[in-house]
Amino acid sequence: MFNRTRSLQTAAALVSISLAAGCGLIDSQSSDDEEPIVVGTTSAPSTLDPAAAWDGSWELYRNVYQTLVSFPTGSSTPEPDAAEHCEFRGETNEVYHCELRKGLEFSDGSSLDADDVKHSIDRIRKIGVTGGPEGMLGSLDKVTVDGSRGVTFHLGKPDATFPFVLATPAMSLVNKEDYPADKLRDDGAITGSGPYRLEEYKEDEKSELVRNGKYKGPADRKNNAVTIRYFQDSAELAGALKKKDIDVTFRGLASEDIVDLDAQNTKEGIQLVEGAGTEIRYLVFNPKDRWAKNPAVRKAVAQVVDRWSISHNVYKDTVDPLYSMVPQGVAGHTTGFFDAFGKPSTTKARAILTEAGINEPVPLTLWYTTDRYGSVTRAEFKEIERQLEASELFDVTLKGRPWKTYEKGYREGEYPVFGRGWFPDFPDADNFIAPFVGENNALGTPYPSPKIINTLLPQSRKEPDRGAVAKEFEAAQEILVKDARLLPLWQGKQYVAASEEIAGGERALDPSTIMQMWELHRKTSW
């Protein structure tokens, strides 16, 4: 039977909910001969080394590596994982200390100690991969160890978000014997201490995970093995689920496939779990481009773009319009772009351009990635092109590239205007603003914003109560709206589609919407 389950929680974490009668969530004990649960996704790893990835590779890392702290199911607060306990020392949020669990081991049986933790963090900064996670450690001064279990992080400035950073898969703990200090591991293998170990890996094809017998941590594994299969597009992914070639899908279902699954009859035997999400999409304007650097052009685009049309006509209401870089459900969310620009208006956009002395259609080239965010991305950008052209204020050229070459292009400043998506590193407003500002930001387009960088972000990072910093982020977003360097478009919902035989889908996504494979299991009774 087909069951659609909605989570009404608006925070950035999915909480436990029940499916309808006939598909109840029943805990099961894994058996040694249980078939692996097969999970499909379009989010294939770009690398197996955590020091190089600030992308969808984290989906795999969360399950095979371990971090000092992590987000337990249903919580958006970091709690101990490889660590026995962690805490800020002093009152300035500048010294963060962790004590490791006793007897930690990597999957190959070698010990995991404080030196491995220091090595794991230090090599990220030493290797400094372009587009890698080095930028997440901007507040870190140095790491010191105390015996075999004590690790202390000395920060160069107060940063209450540092535990959130440590909870990301970018800070996965690796074996100092297998991962060089000054270069990436290149043998195609993984030595981790997470809930699973990597049994077999075929690039862009599959990852076979089996239970790690050396694991010591909080994950309650409800299965013995998971095979992750990587697909090129949503239609192929949804088709594999219908044919029962896979058991579960996550990350990559296009809107038309979600709608189709939602409308399936009882013959399909599929359940669709919908939850609140914090994934966002936005446009980036390159300040090096003749037209995109002009504030009037950016504001005119902001005045014309119709987010409702994109959300409703292109994404079939599987996403919501977004008027703030900080999404709904995260403290600090506003509707700044709606407040400033209101409903789409060609008349207002023309007035903005005319006042700036622009009286001819503005030539703009919009770029999108053809494979990163699903096949519907092209339809989204065709709709944006249609809206801008219909205003007769812009002459739009649309171009697309596969992600591997697309990323290189925007980092080299090649694109005047380009689309990006953001899956948060951690569920805090800081992570929807800080990565996009500064000279060396995650977008490759320098965005100096002194008040945000030097005042608002530092002030917010002094406050350990993350719910009490909304005013700083509201002020930051006023600046983002005024500059219009980034144009938020929509906020995604999260969907996990699964065979009716599979339980745990509603608990499998952490607050950053990364799949925790250990929550999935086959039902043993009805």
Automatic annotation (TrEMBL):
Gene3D superfamilies from the UniProt entry: Dipeptide-binding Protein, Domain 3, Periplasmic binding protein-like II
Localization, per the record, is: Cell envelope
Please name the InterPro entries in this protein's record.
Peptide/Ni-bd, SBP_5, SBP_5_dom
A molecular function (GO) held by this record is:
peptide transmembrane transporter activity
One short Pfam name that applies is SBP_bac_5
Chief subcellular location: other
Q: Which N-terminal residues, if any, form the signal peptide?
A: 1-20
Q: Indicate yes or no for the key word Secreted.
A: no
Domain (Solute-binding protein family): give its ranges. Answer: 78-442
Q: Would you tell me the Gene Ontology cellular component terms?
A: ATP-binding cassette (ABC) transporter complex; cell envelope; periplasmic space
Q: Which UniProt keywords apply?
A: Signal, Transport
This protein's source sits in the domain of life called Bacteria
Keyword Signal in record: yes
Q: Which family does it belong to?
A: Belongs to the bacterial solute-binding protein 5 family.
Listed name of the protein: Peptide-binding protein
Say which species the protein is native to: Streptomyces triticagri
